User: Fold these one by one.
Assistant:
Number 1:
Amino acid sequence: MKIKYTLLKEEKNTKARYGKLETNHGTFETPMFMPVGTLANVKTLTPEELKEINSAVILANTYHLWLRPSADTIKKAGGLHKFMNYDGPILTDSGGFQVFSLAKAKDISEQGVKFKSHINGEPLFLTPELSIEIQNKLDSDIAMSFDECPAASASYEYMKQSVERTIRWAKRGKDVHNNSNQSLFGIVQGGAYQDLRKFSALETVKLDFDGYSVGGVANDGESKEDMYKAIIYSTEYLPKDKPRYLMGVGDPIDIIEGVIRGIDMFDCVLPTRLARHGHAYTRYGNINIKNAKYKEDFTKLEEDCDCYTCKNYTKAYIRHLVVCNESLGGRLLSIHNIRFLIKLTEELREAIKNDTLLEYKEEFINKYKK
Amino acid sequence: MKIKYTLLKEEKNTKARYGKLETNHGTFETPMFMPVGTLANVKTLTPEELKEINSAVILANTYHLWLRPSADTIKKAGGLHKFMNYDGPILTDSGGFQVFSLAKAKDISEQGVKFKSHINGEPLFLTPELSIEIQNKLDSDIAMSFDECPAASASYEYMKQSVERTIRWAKRGKDVHNNSNQSLFGIVQGGAYQDLRKFSALETVKLDFDGYSVGGVANDGESKEDMYKAIIYSTEYLPKDKPRYLMGVGDPIDIIEGVIRGIDMFDCVLPTRLARHGHAYTRYGNINIKNAKYKEDFTKLEEDCDCYTCKNYTKAYIRHLVVCNESLGGRLLSIHNIRFLIKLTEELREAIKNDTLLEYKEEFINKYKK
């Protein structure tokens, strides 16, 4: 079965949508935040811990799993769900983003992308067809089309050619997609150029995907203003009966701004990456737990947070673990940070239902930027 | 309240004892294995995970906690239990072992030991009185006397002087011990010398501690035969109504041999250290999960193991995590390895109750060394 999105309510004063997403691994409400499980695990955490913080879809990385342990090994395990023992929905990216960022691909042709493995320098060649073939084997619930993700600084001319190629790649991927239990999303690119976003959205929608991603935002050097514009330039042309996924965005304020512009799904490595570096989200802005002022601070990260970490541990203890490089510290912060973003989306859904999203945003930002 | 040990049964054919240990944080059966929580956490694990594998007492390191976050910080937190949110019993060592191994103390006098911090080289001075004072502040259930732990290769003359000094240190520590909720153990030293072990045991028992440790075994260069002899040379002179703790031993066969010689409590960093290096205990010997043969081995570490890891994950998945340096891998192996040793002690208790310990040992070793 493919996923099924149902739009349940549009907020009065914004483009925000409250909806539900039915998958082969459960039904969940949107807007939602999806934690990233790069290598078939959300770093330091178990599936049970993700469920306890009401996590729904998680994201896994096609590029990383292709290299280790390989798509064939995961297929032999019975697919990604069985391999990692996660019975909730899984979304896989196309590998494109990692190829362009991590592996620093230089050789892009119509056929695909030549690059070198970030692990051992081995030459590799990823095509739209191969990306889909790998994702078919991983057997995720939602697969992504293989796209080029140009730098925010790319010229109009380059961006135009890239957008056109990404549409051709999307069609090639869709043509070979062969997994009736897996949905496939198209990706809207076009940088900050309004006409390219429109072109990309309209042409991608013509190919009739199960959902649509907005890509190429939150890139190096892009301003927040450009990012928010790029979202609205894209969502404007997307069908209302399909889910919209803003790729790679996990800053709390960006999530709110994305929801206001009609986004349903978000993912980001930030909550777990920040955690490993000792940072915690709080309603009053992010804190660095390594700061000396927390050494004997026996209060919780957030007194009213309902996560396991805040129910059980003090800042002083978490600081001690982080300062001593004990990985339990990063684990406790990961639980809190992911819960923080998931709680945020729960509150956003309530605000959409009550048509109070703009008030919610103002209140949130006033505290968070204090 | 001090701990209370009750000897429930002696095995017919060996010196093994089945007993119970009442503490301010619950009552538990012996023989028991105690996981090590060096820096106020059993690496990668939460208190709930320790309870799930029937862990009872855990051990924390006085030396490490003295340096970070400091005894005063933990006292301000309300003691070690509150600081780390663990409501089971905690045993603290004296810091002696770390001072002699990790910090490589060179300057031992009657007064105490001068050495340098392994973190920043700062000069430090630890005395029997200070060790007890720190442990009083940590507020563990069981504290250890400060002892010298000479190398197995030490001469008879050196070992004799050291044993005599350790007894004087034990008395000095006991004199300043000031925590009515904390029990204090004396430590028997003497290397592989029968008369020194006897002297050390008898003189330490004269000081009337709440329990007795056998120290200075499992040191570099000591043979298994010498180690087993040192245990029996010590336990022979220890009172039957007090618990006996063999420090730093976690090899499964050594635990069995220790139990046969009358030991009630064991601790070791091995299960978690092996886990971090990708090793797992199994009934058929230890395995290195990084071995290529496990890449597509979709069976459990041990099919009949009742731990969370074996109930949920395959060797192929754990191998993938360990190979990719994902700390969840070490976490899953830690759960299994600790459970393995705790299960071993559960089976040893049954064998003592049934007077079948020697048969159990033979069967275990036949499989394990296969």
Number 2:
Amino acid sequence: MNNKQALYNEYTERMQKIADVNYSIAVLGWDKEVNLPTKGVRFRSRQLATLAGISHELFVDEKFGDLLQRLNDGNSLDKGQEKNVQLSLKDFNKTKKLSKEFVIKRSKLTSDAYHQWIKAKEANDFEIFKPALSSLIDLKREEADLIGYEDHPYDALMDEFETGAKTSELTVLFKDVREQLVAFVKELKEQPQVDNSFLHKFYGKDKQWDYGIDVLKNIGYDFEAGRQDISTHPFTTNFSPEDVRVTTRIDEQDFTNMVWSCIHEGGHALYEQGLPVDQYGLPLGTYTSLGIHESQSRLWENNVGRSKEFWKHNYPALQQAFPENLSNISLDKFYAAINRVEPNMIRTEADELHYHFHVLIRFELEKGLIEGSINIDNVKEMWNAKYKEYLGVDVPDDANGILQDIHWSHGSFGYFATYSLGSFYAAQFFHQAEQDIPGLRQEIEAGNNANLLKWLRTNIHQHGRHYTSQELCAKVTGEPLNFKYFMDYARKKFKGIY
Amino acid sequence: MNNKQALYNEYTERMQKIADVNYSIAVLGWDKEVNLPTKGVRFRSRQLATLAGISHELFVDEKFGDLLQRLNDGNSLDKGQEKNVQLSLKDFNKTKKLSKEFVIKRSKLTSDAYHQWIKAKEANDFEIFKPALSSLIDLKREEADLIGYEDHPYDALMDEFETGAKTSELTVLFKDVREQLVAFVKELKEQPQVDNSFLHKFYGKDKQWDYGIDVLKNIGYDFEAGRQDISTHPFTTNFSPEDVRVTTRIDEQDFTNMVWSCIHEGGHALYEQGLPVDQYGLPLGTYTSLGIHESQSRLWENNVGRSKEFWKHNYPALQQAFPENLSNISLDKFYAAINRVEPNMIRTEADELHYHFHVLIRFELEKGLIEGSINIDNVKEMWNAKYKEYLGVDVPDDANGILQDIHWSHGSFGYFATYSLGSFYAAQFFHQAEQDIPGLRQEIEAGNNANLLKWLRTNIHQHGRHYTSQELCAKVTGEPLNFKYFMDYARKKFKGIY
């Protein structure tokens, strides 16, 4: 073993040690959401904080920085090793740009903002949250300056979630969303509405649970490398590619909640279960970006999980489980109902099309707040006006309006766009998969999703963080992200329903 | 704040940081037993090992040792603070006596011995385990020498589990066990056996589960500071006094498994829930010794949970849950059945009296092996001969004989005795509680265990590790551990049944 390889092993060892601590944090976090008895919160919080501190110290260690520098001279490492070192060094340098004082200030401010947001939402009054939000925006501008950017301060913030995302490019993308999608949804509105009342009858808990497990198995989720549990908000977490857990929630008056949360989280989980296990703890062992992660959940949730082919296979079992609600409902009627398009105030309850208006609004407001073109005193009125303009709805109050999402209170600016990016990447990937797998739709119809999963594993999952989302998209589909694929998908699908 | 107090705060901070890591290990360990998907084992093991390494490094840090030395000069600290520092310094010095090389060797040997034990048990052949056991015994002798002892090398090993336990004193104690208990059990055997066949009918899983939860509530277990789950082997674990979890197992053909595991683990958990929360991470926030811990589980399991008073309150609900098995069984018949005395090969299935013969045999063999008076080539024959002599049973094979317990494979020599100490302390404590709480038995009969729990909280739990078990026993009962209390309890109880 040459000296360089010994250094690389030292690097790997440190990174995997950090991963062990981070995944332990994930276990404690999962347990907090799934199992924690009420009194357990206090000490769990300090245990989580201690582990986070240890993980941080292990990473920002100057000696580790030196090691990364020495490894980064580009010799005697193979391509994957080189990439790992480059990405770790990038992360290291980025972390170093934020002083300890800044990190403490940020932690204080976000913790405070979170509590103010809770209060404001309960009181249904944005004014309570506004001072904290205002401080957070100042902080985020400072953070952008510390991190640095070429064109736009918002670029620096988005980079945290979507490496290389550009405000200028997203501005163009969301212009397309605004123009094309608003017009298309208007067309659909002129058609008669589809009936979905039968989805909101009583669907018993235990049968829903069993059905959700079957659906997860159907899409290829490996229960030997994961499990499903119940939590207030569904989520996916992972402690290695060999232990990737999902949660769901069950509403006995709304069957759709559970099934599509299973498929959505299942899609995230399939990505994590498909990451290369030999890259544990290293950049190549982790996901590309939040946008690509979301593309995996949305591809399964919408492109597969709301397709007629998928339900051709899965609907009979559903009818059998709930004959009292569904025995007289045809597959066509069911398919239309689960794809019903209807404006709604709340992002998390939006349909596949309206969803992007919610993101669009947040993107426009965040961008304006960060660059200073929007004054915080006007942001609520702008929120309400945009909901009227794009969705045609009157926001009744702050809790259902500008206070609905937790993200800003966490200081997450630049996050929302990744939700839409996910759908758009999903459409483009699925289109490519159809080219590459002859008979893909017939396979799904037959309940066989194995080739699709294999395609995703080969083209996306196995690469980990080797490529940026833009690079990955070009590699897999031969072109950069193109909104056309989503619009084509939407037009074809919804014109068939409305 | 004076300088000494600032140092004490520094000490507290470090200890609580270590506790955070150790309790995180406990969360990962709990999850491993309760939830882990099969493929998750590999990375969970390395995550556990990494956290253990971090915890160890934080504790054995020389600077921390200096801090402890400076704090230990006996000035300006209050009594509790002084005690914490003394105990931490004792732990620190003990840890320092074992070199890093020795710890690595021990870890390697025990890991190897564990695998050999698994193999040997599967193959039902002690010869497979013998070489590893022999190496372990050499290692344990070396460990005893490194730690140091006054009278007997076995003292050094027992100290790990039962601070201050002396081989000489336990030799006297187990002589009493051998003479008095063997004779008493012989007397009982001359009486007609009681019927317990109805305990082994079909008891449905869900009803057993619900009943177990009710029993835990009845003894005072706080479900807001804990939860119960299912695992292969029942255990108690804690992440703070505000999150203490128990597990149980359910056998539909053997009702006794579940209920008494609930009460036994519940007893452990009540102790942990009663430890002083303001001493989190410090010696005074942890339990006295394994013997005292076991006294709490056994007091609830046997002195309370196998008493007629307890079942006078709890039996009607049990009959209601399982009328098909119990409606024709009187309380007296039930009470006799759950206290049936019968020799059995397997320690974990032993009744309240025979249990101590199992421990006695292990004590005699361990002591002999460590001091060198027993040769490893004879140990299996001695095991079988002692089972014949004390229990009157013929050991049919190694798997049900000398290979039945996991403890030796973990290198745990000096552990078994704490099980018996637990029962003997329990009898002495319960006798004292009866003196201190007039009408205690009537309270239990009425389903009210609150005063007993309060008594345990005040006299035992709140002290944490302030006293050794011997000191605690003298403080609570006015005298050292006295086997007489257990024999009196046993005679009174079992003469009433047989």
